[in-house]
Design a protein that fits this description.
The protein is mainly alpha-helical. Helices cover about 55% and strands about 5% of the residues. It has a two-stranded antiparallel sheet with strand order 1-2. Helix 1 runs parallel beside helix 7 and helix 3 runs parallel beside helix 6. It starts with a helix and ends in a 24-residue tail after the last helix. The mean pLDDT is about 95.
């Protein structure tokens, strides 16, 4: 399905509120849970989303509009949030994410992009030529992917405790399918 900017915006607008409703005021046993070494907790994910707002989505849109496919995007460092979020509370991160996302959406609105702009070309340092539409679609799917990741990480806290019901719970899977 081709990207429709007006169709994509409701997801981008709702992600901060969705994560706020899911995570705010939960004990840290939920929000700092991971799936094991070198995996991210919901707390980490919110920090990652803040970093994306500041350095990825709108900066790349603006870079693409300015440079086309002649100058590659700067690489995105995915795990900056570990240091940037150190000492912050989850409510502070959720509030910061909501503020940063609102600012991103205001800037996106000010760009007054049209359907024709979706085909404009940019250059990713690893993927090569990409379109503005692909970048914007990735922003939406990236949000959904990380919301799903938060839910999955939290569900897996009880992966063993659900016993035989794991056969009916795809988020935790059958015990023999988990590693």
């Amino acid at each position: 399905m081709p990207l429709s900017i007006p169709d994509a915006l409701p997801i981008l607008r709702r992600t901060p509120a969705t994560l706020n409703a899911l995570l705010r005021d939960l004990p840290s046993s939920w929000t700092h849970a991971t799936e094991g070494p070198n995996t991210w907790s919901p707390f980490d994910i919110v920090g990652h989303l803040i970093h994306g707002e500041r350095t990825d989505w709108i900066p790349r849109v603006e870079h693409l509009l300015l440079h086309g496919d002649t100058v590659p995007f700067a690489p995105f460092v995915r795990d900056v949030m570990f240091e940037a979020s150190r000492g912050a509370s989850l409510p502070t991160l959720l509030d910061t994410f909501a503020t940063e996302r609102a600012a991103s959406l205001r800037l996106l609105d000010e760009l007054a992009l049209t359907a024709d702009d979706s085909g404009r070309l940019g250059r990713h340092h690893a993927f090569g030529v990409v379109t503005l539409g692909q970048l914007l679609a990735t922003w939406v799917v990236h949000d959904l992917d990380h919301v799903a990741q938060c839910v999955r990480v939290m569900a897996r806290r009880y992966a063993d405790e659900v016993g035989p019901w794991s056969a009916y719970l795809p988020l935790v899977g059958r015990a023999s399918d988990r590693s």
